[in-house]
What does this fold into?
Amino acid sequence: MTLGWARLRHRAKVSVGNQLGLIFSKQCEINRGPARQLISVFSDEAKRLGVQENIISGPSSGDKVTPEFILDCMIESEYRSCLVFGEADTTGSGAFSAANVDVSLPTAMHRIGNNILKEMMPAPCVLANPKYYFGLVTMRFRRKRKLREGVLLAMPRHHNFFHWMVEILPRLMFYDRCPRLQLAPLIVPKSAPPFVGESLIPT
It folds into this structure.
């Protein structure tokens, strides 16, 4: 494939993706589509589905800091609003277990019954991204591989170095603290960048 053709194909992909993203963003704003299926791991609905806390870390406090530099884009503006107007304390976090979970790889989207655990995503706006949107809605039609148990060490944007190092890899702390989980294999997408595998090699 020539460089010119590759660039044209990329521009078409971005253009179509941006248009779809606008449609999916409107769905999220009015709580339609997959956004209606979001529930918290701490909710009664999650407990009814069998989501259990294995080990939990309580909320912590921190000072709010306004970013000095930020791009004037939708997602960046949402992050800025969270930093400036969000809660002063973090929510609780930890390792959770559930049965009969469907996972779409490599996007790492998931569904328990007809619900999505919102803490398993960096932010609900992920559902406005066509890649993750289609990864979620098409998983029921794709061939499945059954695993008796496993620890999903992936979430949307796991291929990004920052998200992997800051949001995902530290979750191994809970894995280390829960002996029962250490018998289960870690699950990461085959397409994960090399730094994912390198960071999991014991030193």
